[in-house]
Design goal:
about 25% strand; about 40% helix; Alpha-Beta Plaits; 2 domains; EC 2.7.7.65; 5-stranded antiparallel sheet; diguanylate cyclase; about 300 residues; elongated; GGDEF_dom; 5-stranded mixed sheet; Beta-Lactamase; alpha+beta; Nucleotide_cyclase; PAS-like_dom_sf
């Protein structure tokens, strides 16, 4: 049998810190979690309340999770971020950067000082969290240009379409395709074509606002979504981009042929059943711009 002294040693050896917290947020006890690579020593918190050491908004969130665990009597699992600056009462040893935790919170079946208590085990999941962030970024990004890809555009357009339906906040879209890129590829090689596509991406990046989504739609085709932007403003923006592309790609001309852009511009309409209808209209406008002789903007 394991005696009480051994039980203490076992609790101390727990890799992740395990807090006993009361319903009102008092740190009743802390066990384990002495690995300073991952955790700060939490023993300085014992006797204090969450609201003594954590800013009010976050402290309230902690109290809500404790209440959830106590009321449901089920395991509550939540991810959250904390830094040692967020929590007063911790020593300076331990990780410097903010930590992402997974908290597993379970109601206990006894009272401490007449108060209900929970067991809150906090595991450091920063590595996994950062990796997930990087993967998300990669899965949203076009490799050649660093612009967003079609997946991310479709995600953003879904949200913008909701705003259009609910609050009548319009989103404009323009779709453009480079003119004559094939000639550059055929004469100067694929690498020169890649350089042009990258130059266009840079122009997009330096022309758009933070809330806009510039995406490489495929090949030499690009789409920019402009939330909270009506027809007129979108047209002005397309003109600016068109002009910059014309100016900056002049240097890549071959035998008098330069790469320009044909642009189709449109704005969400009440008759659009989804963002795909808007996108299709932009595509048709782009097709018209090509048919009318390229290097131009068509607004529909
Ligand atoms: N270098 C390079 N070329 C690409 C890439 N993606 C597509 N292209 C080329 O872009 C061209 C697209 O075809 P088109 O749109 O018919 O060619 P275009 O000369 O621009 O024709 P217009 O649009 O009618 O002016 C093809 O030559 C593709 O090989 C890429 O990632 N790198």
């Amino acid at each position: 049998m394991i005696n009480l002294e051994q039980m203490d040693l076992i609790l101390e050896a727990l890799p992740d810190p395990a807090f006993i917290l009361s319903r009102s947020g008092k740190y009743v006890a802390v066990f384990g979690g002495r690995d300073t690579r991952y955790y700060h020593d939490g023993t300085g918190l014992i006797g204090l309340y969450i609201s003594d050491v954590i800013k009010p908004e976050k402290a309230n969130w902690f109290l809500e999770q404790i209440a959830r665990a106590l009321e449901s009597r089920k395991l509550v699992v939540e991810e959250y971020e904390l830094s040692n600056r967020d929590v007063k009462g911790l020593d300076d040893d331990g990780p410097k950067d903010p930590i992402w935790f997974e908290g597993r919170i379970q109601a206990l079946s006894f009272l401490v000082d007449d108060e209900e208590v929970v067991l809150w085990v906090a595991s450091n999941i920063s590595e996994r969290h950062n990796l997930e962030g990087k993967l998300r970024e990669l899965s949203d990004t076009d490799q050649l240009t660093g612009l967003f890809n079609r997946r991310k555009l479709e995600h953003d357009l879904t949200l913008h379409y909701e705003s259009w339906l609910r609050y009548s906040i319009p989103t404009s879209i323009f779709m453009f395709d480079l003119d004559n890129l094939k000639k550059i590829n055929d004469t100067k090689g694929h690498h020169a074509g890649d350089e042009i596509i990258q130059a266009v991406a840079n122009i997009c990046r330096t022309t758009i606002r933070k809330a806009d989504t510039a995406c490489r739609f495929g090949g030499d085709e690009f789409v920019v979504a402009l939330p909270n932007t009506g027809h007129e403003q979108a047209m002005q923006f397309a003109q600016r981009l068109h002009e910059r592309i014309r100016e900056e790609l002049r240097q890549f001309s071959v035998e008098g042929t330069s790469v320009t852009a044909s642009i189709g511009v449109t704005t969400m309409l009440t008759t659009d059943r989804s963002y795909e209808d808007t996108l299709k209209r932009a595509d048709r406008a782009l097709y018209d711009a090509k048919s009318l002789g390229k290097d131009r903007i068509v607004l529909v």
